[in-house]
Amino acid sequence: MSTIVGKPITRVEDARLLTGQGKYIDDIGIPTNTVHAAILRSTYPHAKIVSIDITEAEKEPGVKAIITGEQVKKYLNPFSVGVSAPVKYYPIAVEKVRYVGEPVAVILAKDRYIAEDALEKIKVKYEPYAPIVDIEKSLEPDAPILHENVGSNIANHRTFDYGEVDKAFKEADRIVKHKYTFPKYSATPVETYGLLANYEDSEDKYTINANFHGPFVIQAIMAQALKVPGNKLRIIVPKDIGGSYGIKAGIFPYMVLLAVSSRIAGYPVKWVEDRQEHLSASSSGTDRVTYIEAAVKNNGKVTGLRMKMIDNVGAYIRAPEPACLYRTHANSTGAYDIPNLHIDAYAIMTNKLPTGLIRGYGGQELYFPLERIMQRVARELKMDPADVIRENLIKKDQFPYTTASGGIYDSGDYVRGFDLALETGHYQAFRKKQEEARKSGKIFGVGLANIVEPSGSNMGYITVALTPEERANSLPKSGCAEAATISMDPTGSVNVRISTTPSGQGHETVAAQIISDVLGIPMDKINVVAELDTSTSAWSIASGSYSSRFASLGSSAVYYAAHKVKAKLLKIAAHQLGVIDNELDLKDGNIYLKNDPDKKYSLKRAVGTAHWNPLSLPDGMEPGIYETYYYTAKIAEPPDENDMINSSITYGFVSDLVTVEIDRETAEVKILDYVTIHDAGKLLNPKIVDGQIFGGLAHGLGGALYEELVYDSNGQFLTGSFMDYLCPTAPEIPNVTIKHIETPSPLTPLGAKGLGEGNTMSAPVAVANAVSDALSPYNIEIDTLPLSPNKIWSLLSQAELYKKHKEVKAK
């Protein structure tokens, strides 16, 4: 019987983090001969590199080496990509630059100050080309081409048809459609990229310490680029990572660049990114244009969807892209029972920073148009949005529910969750308040959003980027494997090694809770090791901290590894007691007979026997206590010949209700109240869960109201500091009410589903729906983000002018 899992235990990590004893990348000791890197970056968005003159920079005292793309290219292959387009991507510009901030040269010096000063002495001659930053214009026949060998700016294009789409639209009472654009924004962790790279000539081996949150996933791609076997590339991740939110998966090009720099120069190389570099040249989510059409019945039922989604992956498509385009493929219809679906999916390239993972990747881009069109359906039918949503939500008796595109929603009660949001947010009362407020000239609005939160990616989803014919000629990909290793020393203390590379989520705490329950020992006897080393950790290509995979997959690996240890201990005790092991159980440090609890065998003695007296063990049993378990869900199959794919393992549910007031004088959006209801199956630690929800909500509100990586029409980057790139801080976070329902997943041993990305996906569209509702008397449609005061003021001004113009004309 569980006693600790599910309780709001304070995180064990907090003691070291709050007392300054965390061990981050910048805390790692460095060899005495280490040099420090500074990177010269392109000031042009699109140009040919005519020449690079390093003569004056080389003369600077303390400069050890200057490295350019032509030198690096000799030691590298281009990074492999997950699409058929022959995009050649190196970690430094070779012959041509394609975005502002792209590395052009690396200076290695005695310290960072010398290296930075020397950057100014490098003279680069460019031949500028016309840039392209507009998503749709990049597809036009006369658009500037970024990669001549590709022949267009399309990195990937696929179409999908599920169900009877044409029939649904033919039989619809009306068709509701609109175009929506989603902005490019980032993740901005407090700790930026950092690494220490060292090439050992004697072994032809690279060792890289980096705050890389998913090394197993891309280690093989890096080794291939470096032209070495996998065991010649060792990646070590420190105990603590100062936030990631997905973006630290994008550090891998810099790891390769500075590893090669170490090889060329003959020194270990350290580099820590500054904030301007992070904003302009690390990674980001994709900006997307979506054309969406809904086939609608007069009662509000949506029977079919057509979506044309155009993702901008930036100057190069790089791993794991086109993840943002396909990660949510299985849940493309969200929380709604929509059986017919057509998708026209593009990943295109422009002269912007390349993209990758950020919290919720793909989800916020999907749900913005999907949830906006549901509100538009209600508006055109003159129905309450709540009634349209309830008409379309998947019902409890439909689970497990298979989506049009192949997702298998494991469990849920969406109507119950939605009703709880309406009740908690006093929806009907606010509608009455809104009606009265409008009479006095106030602008009030309420927004609803209901999303499915996928967790634990099926590695096969990325191959949806390939046609069935292309997939037939490549290695099939499936699964979602995660590993955990548990050992016990002769005193009975436990060491646990996890490979989920936590970056503040509390994995160590939850792993200790699970093991404490399974083995019946106190948490203070359990030490969880979160440092990751690709040379010593249990290998799983999927391991890492992304797609909210710990609760569904990481916890399952820990649970089953603990049960392997338990099974061995019970066998040892059974052998000593002369009973059958299934007659025994374990609790409070003792192994005892279920039907005679007074008959005990000390857990410590059983462990000691495995170490000190191996000859007394049952025949065939290995000495010691050291068990590894690899967990993967059986439903994580490759896509089939019809492109059906269950792209994630578990699917949670989030229902948001947000109320806003818009200031008529300043056009500022003030969030009055935010209600969010979550169903993530069994909650492993409610205190950690609520912390994750607050973090995801803050990120989502940033995308809704503040954050955007802005480029002008000439490809110049305009938001290179926190003066221009605005992030919400504590005073901007509204009153938040969090409630939970729990429908345990039948697929995971603890019933848990992933959580932490949901509000990052739901908040942008929930706020947009609220603002659109508030502005509906002015016939204003919100179809882009972020909703800055300037943007809303412009919309209001146009609406007021149009209203006055009509009045004058009528007179």
Map the helices and strands.
Layout: H1 14-18, E1 35-41, E2 47-53, H2 55-58, E3 63-68, H3 69-73, E4 96-97, E5 103-109, H4 112-119, E6 123-128, E7 154-162, H5 165-170, E8 174-182, E9 194-200, E10 205-210, H6 215-226, E11 233-237, H7 252-265, E12 269-272, H8 275-281, E13 287-296, E14 302-312, H9 323-326, E15 340-348, H10 363-381, H11 385-392, E16 401-402, E17 408-409, H12 414-424, H13 427-439, E18 443-457, H14 468-472, E19 482-488, E20 494-498, H15 507-519, E21 526-529, E22 532-533, H16 549-577, E23 584-587, E24 590-593, E25 596-602, H17 603-612, E26 625-631, E27 648-662, E28 669-679, H18 686-706, E29 736-740, H19 758-774, H20 789-810
Parallel strand pairs: 1-12, 10-11, 14-15, 20-21, 28-29
Antiparallel strand pairs: 1-5, 2-4, 2-6, 3-5, 7-15, 8-13, 9-10, 9-12, 11-22, 13-14, 16-17, 18-27, 19-20, 19-26, 23-24, 24-25, 27-28
Helix pairs in contact: 6-7, 10-11, 10-19, 15-16, 16-17, 18-19
